[in-house]
C-alpha cells in the first residue's frame, strides 16, 4: 500500500492505456462468447490444467470452464478498479509530490499492459481447453510461454522504469 501524506494527482489515461483497455475488453468479450457458445458441444470432461509442455495433465468437469471465465472477469475487474485506488497498489517505490505523476503514469500504463496480456493469455488457454476437449488439438502448446515471458518483462519493466524516475 502506498504511504503518502498528500493527495495523489489525477492522471489522465494515456493513448496506450486506452488501446490496452479496448483490446482487453475485446479479448474478454470474445473469450466469454467462445466459452458460452461452445459449452453445449463440450464433452463432460475437459482439460483443466496444462503442463510446461502445453499438454493437458489434469481433467475436470466441463462446468469448471465457467470458473475459468469467472477468474478472467475477476482479473479484469480488479486490475481496472485498481487504477481508481492508487494508494492500494503495493510498489517498492517512494512517491513524492515531485515524482507522483511520472511514477503513477508508469504504473497505470504497466497495469493496463498487464491486464491486456492476462486477458489474451486466458483467451488462449480457454481456446486450447475447448479445442483439446473437442479433439481438435493436443493441448495449448508452448506458445503459452510467450505470454508468461511478456508478463515477466512487463512487471520487471514497471519496476525498473518506476525506480528510474524516483
Q: Secondary-structure map with pairings?
A:
Elements: H1 15-38, E1 45-50, E2 56-61, H2 64-82, H3 100-133, H4 144-164
Helix pairs in contact: 1-2, 1-3, 2-3, 3-4
Description:
With 166 residues, this protein is mainly α. It has one domain (15-41, 61-164). Helix content is 59%, strand content 7%. It contains four helices and two strands. The protein has helices spanning 15-38, 64-82, 100-133, 144-164; strands spanning 45-50, 56-61. The protein has a two-stranded antiparallel ribbon. Strand 1 and strand 2 form a beta hairpin. Helix 3 packs antiparallel against helix 4 (144-164). The longest helix has 34 residues, at 100-133. It is elongated. The two termini are 17 Å apart.
How many strands in all?
2
User: DSSP helix count?
Assistant: 4
Terminal Cα span: 17 Å
State the helicity in percent bands.
55-70%
Strand order of the largest sheet: 1-2
What is the count of structural domains? 1
What's the rounded overall pLDDT mean? 91
Radius of gyration: 19 Å
Structural class per helix/strand content? mainly alpha
What share of the residues does DSSP label as strand, in percent? 5-15%
Q: How do the helices and strands follow one another from N- to C-terminus?
A: HEEHHH
